[in-house]
Amino acid sequence: MSIQVFKVTLAFIIILTTTSPLVFSQQNDWEITTTDYQNYTGIVTANGRIGILPSFKILETDQIILNNVYDKESLLGVSKILLGMNFGNLEIHINGEKLDNTKITNWKQTINMKEARFTTSFTYKNAANVSYSIYALRNVPYAGYIDFDIRALEDIDLKVVGKIQTPEEYNNPMSTFRILKDLETTMPILQTVAKSRLNRHRVATSATFIWHNINSTHENQRPELIHEKITEYDNRLSFKSKVRGGEQYTFAWTASQCSTQDFYDPQTESERFVIFNLLTPKNDLLSQHKALWKDLWKGDIIIDGDTQSQLDVRLALYHLYAFSREDSNLSIAPMGLSSQGYNGHIFWDTELWMYPPLLVLNQDIARSLVNYRSNRLDIAKKKAINFGYKGAMFPWESDDTGEEATPAWALTGTFEHHITADVGIAFWNYYRVTKDKKWLKERGYPLLKEVADYWVSRSTINKDGSYSIKNVVGANEFAPNVDDNAFTNGSAITCLQYASLAAKELEILPDSTWNHVANKIIIHKFEDGTTKEHSNYNGDQIKQADVNLLAYPLDIINDKKTILKDLKYYEPKLAKEGPAMAQSVFAVIYARLGDADNAFRLFKRSYEPNKRPPFGALAEAATSNNPYFATGAGGMLQTVIFGFAGLHITDKGIIQKNPILPKTWKKLTVTGVGPDKKTYVIE
Question: Is 279 among the domain residues?
Fold first, then answer.
């Protein structure tokens, strides 16, 4: 690992390269703790397959989200990601009394981002201290694990109830309890199997209790398990135990949830995952989970001198890692695995906002994100044909099928076409960073060729020989059905150029029309040289950054005079109810211009008004309450990586130009950059 150190002063930058390891942060940079659940918004634990959202109510989980598992929201509706069966609600009874928030003291919750562990602790009278940690296991990605530690302060009678609770929208649930046996090994399995709301999928959840330090072959060492089926939608398993004062009583509740989206036989697969967790020693199981997260955190951002910014940035990166997997070929929805927001569909939010930080810090995850699109290329080609175009036309909202998943009433689904260019840009950037020529040949260029052909067919030649792209919804969705939207045209130009570069890289003769059209697509200007958002733009309020995206990330506008004009003209026009990432673009551009004050101002503005107590979960806008908005996390991370750290994705790979620090930051360190896992230190 090489380490590049940049000393920033008013006059110069000193570059130092070393290969010695560095220790950057302390434990308190990794944890956020609260003792107050007023106005509570939880932080999800996720592993790229399932998301578990804890509650402020003790022993409860608000919801479980299943990635890439969809059914129609209604008979006449579009697809919607599934709300999973809830295996995270338990009960603890001590001396006959069921515990809840009104009966406890010393309530505390901590999210440990380093280990992806969410811990709740409390005290029950003078009888017991209770602590439990929730894991969405990175190593067993269809499984959750809740680890309990009860310390008796006096002799207590303990009863614990584990549940599988099936949402009412599911059909025909069948709830059972069986004890499987192989030779002398017994494996108790609580299970519910049901059909999703419109019967597209069969979903199966299995669960069991685990007692550490008890040999699984000696069932008489376990407490007796009692099965109680309240209804087919409420399946329960419980045990009782006596705990002496001063003793520590530990156990776990583990569950796995599988569906026919990923398995031919989700019922038995869910059983196998639970059995694996049951019979794997706890230390081994959790050590594997922690080791995988340790590997993820090789790509990290460390801020010295500003603890709050450090926690905010790390929480953003934690969410991007939690919502994705390097082995899945899946993408990330705007709300990740924290909710069913936006139906769990995939937007440009991935390619333009979340993908660039991940491409810099974890190329394996980045590859999954782009492969998600190439796996749906054939469907995109059919869509282009169906709308009278050539090449491939990607949907504005995508689901597991790759067909358009936007509700028909939303004009974005029919007209927001820049998504096709956004996908192509992400593909070339993946090659720029990785130089993976095999991937470029098999996946990258085949897609880039098709999207380039699309933009040629989508463009209209004007009388003067220029080209227009007409009747689109741009990045600024306040202006539907306009001609020559700045970002749409700019992204099409960039994508056409990238397709030619990809062809040349593979020693293929590029289609000459790609660069010809790219060179002739119009970008409209006001008389003073300010870039017009579209052909008839007259100064209206805008939803989010559009024109300014031509400076970053597209680099189509690169002269400082025009960049500043566009910044000053469009920043005041941003709507307060607009999404978080708009200010991030402005922040990156100001940082690259050397204006640290404006960059930091907009960096903070991009997310601070959107933080929700007590952990700082990001809502989409200052005026909304729909966390966690992973798109906003991607935007703020781009400000740090591509703004303050000065990193650029180029045809030569990732390079650094003119890093700059906010006044309050003593040092900025970015680790695990690119395939060579470089470290950049700016101080």
Answer: yes
Distances (CA, A) of 502 to 52, 495, 550: 41, 10, 21
Collapse the DSSP code of 462 into the 3-class scheme (helix H, G, I; strand E, B; otherwise coil) and give the result: coil
Contact, 615 vs 42, CB < 8 A? yes
> Is residue 553 reached through a cis peptide bond, with omega within 30 degrees of 0 on the bond before it?
yes
With tokens 């649930």, the residue in question is 173
Cβ neighbours of residue 89 under 8 Å, at least 6 residues apart? 59, 60, 61, 163, 165
Which range of residues forms the domain containing residue 471? 376-525
Q: Mean pLDDT in each 10-residue stretch from start to end of the chain (683 residues)?
A: 42 32 53 96 98 98 98 97 98 98 98 98 97 98 98 98 98 98 95 98 98 59 92 98 97 98 98 98 98 98 97 98 97 97 98 98 98 98 98 98 97 98 98 98 98 98 98 97 98 98 98 98 98 97 97 97 98 92 96 98 97 97 92 98 98 97 98 98 96
Total domain count, the chain:
2
Residues 103/124, Cβ–Cβ less than 8 Å: yes
> Which of the listed residues 240, 270, 295 is the one where a domain comes to its end?
295
Among 295, 311, 335, the domain-final residue is 295
Is the bond into 357 cis (omega within 30 degrees of 0)?
no
343-389 tens-digit pLDDT: 999 999 999 999 999 999 999 999 999 999 999 999 999 999 999 99
Convert the pLDDT of each residue in 452-485 to its tens digit. 999 999 999 999 999 999 999 999 999 999 999 9
Q: Record the tokens describing residue 304, joined without a space.
A: 């010295």
Q: Computed over its alpha carbons, how large is the radius of gyration of the chain?
A: 26
Within this chain, do residues 270 and 154 fall inside the same structural domain, yes or no? yes
Q: CATH code at 164?
A: 2.70.98.40
The residues assigned a catalytic role are 477, 620
The answer to whether residue 98 sits within a structural domain is yes
CATH number of domain containing 503: 1.50.10.10
Same domain, 57 and 173: yes
Claim to verify: residue 186 and residue 276 sit in the same structural domain: yes
Question: Where would I find the H helices in 200-306?
Answer: 266-279, 282-296
Q: Under DSSP, is residue 253 helix (H, G, I), strand (E, B) or coil?
A: strand
Cis before 342 (ω within 30): no
